[in-house]
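Lab meeting notes turned into a lecture example. A postdoc, R.K., suggested we walk through two folding results consecutively so the class can see how the record format repeats. The first protein's sequence and structure tokens come next.
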Amino acid sequence: MQYFSSLVLFFLSFSISAQTDAEVMKSVYSMSLSNGKSYEWLDYLSNQIGGRLSGSHNAELAVEYTKEQLEEIGLDKVWLQPVMVPHWVRGEKEIANYTANGVQKDVPICALGFSVATPKAGVLAEVIEVKSLAEAEALGNKMKGKIVFFNFLGTPFMSKPFNR
């Protein structure tokens, strides 16, 4: 894990004097509609900084940018606080292979973050094809020790093959 700073939410205090809470909220709402910067900030975060995966460099840039913007509008209590954020970096592209009818074929693969690695020796097992969760459930213990291939091309939500 890597330590990054996190933006601590700010506290705004209003001098209510003779105004009611409803009047104060209406005033804040009206001001935000006419003078607000929300869309400008969102545009910058999305289009200038870009994707902000937890623990990434862009996430840190977004925190710093947000802190600067809150200070720029004059808030009196804006600070960063150290927090622990999980950080994962995708490894190199990988290829898996399988053998069908004595012919080995290579296929590109993509693992999700924090998934369990395949042993160095690989995995050798029979493949069972299913086209629905009901079909998989019906197999029950017959799936143990097998690789289950869910072929969605025959399912109602994907009746036609897709092109890559």
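The second example is placed directly after the first for contrast:
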Amino acid sequence: MTGIATRRRQSVNDVGTETEAFPCGRGLRAMIVVRALFVAIGLIVVWQAVIFVFAPPAFMLPSPAAVFAALRDRPDLWRVDAVTTLTETVIGLIAGAALGALLALLMSFVPPTRRMLLPLMVVSQALPVFAIAPLLVLWFGFGLASKIVMATVAIFFPVASAFNDGLARTDDGLLDLARLYGANHAQQVALLRVPSALPSLITGVRLAAVYAPIGALIGEWVGASSGLGYAMLLANARAQTAVMFACLFLLAAMSVLLRAVVDLLTRNLTPWVPETA
């Protein structure tokens, strides 16, 4: 097995040397940022054009200026509520990603557990999130705990599913070579399946980073004393549509920020997988 591990490290180093010769990753990320900025500016221009042409009532569709004014006049939205939702989301993302990865590893290290865990995972996602949110608030209270659990439940499945799929799709040639060297099942998983499945795990975590705020937001809608979801409920009851749009803007910015942070943290975990446009 030492020979297999050595060969794998050498192949990874060779691929890393080749990718360094073509440093397109930084340029690709800059291109993505520029595209995102153009898309955001384009949406604001279209939004303002709709306001100018159709002149809808402010309680139906506020102007971009009214939304930014709400952000300026309500600093508690981004000082308190946004921080609360971001805290719930980040902790839920970490817990959900860890739980999903552990479940996938358990199913890979102990194959009989797959027949028991996979149906339970599917059932956990088949239930409507709104249906279990009141129970979680009842069990864990109106504080951060219920929102963290909700975010964890909402995102662990994409991570577990993607990682499990990657673990199950390891190259048969590598596994046959490992058996030829006398590797047992645990060594095959640790030395071959896990490194081969890292791109799938990263994909699942990146997807979870986008979905993570949804779980926290639903938990705040059901019962909370702060957070963007709670602020949206109050604004809806008072017909403050500009405040609701301001909360949506903060949620969108939060999702983009989380995705960017996850990309930054996972950038060098799989140097043998090239980035393409």
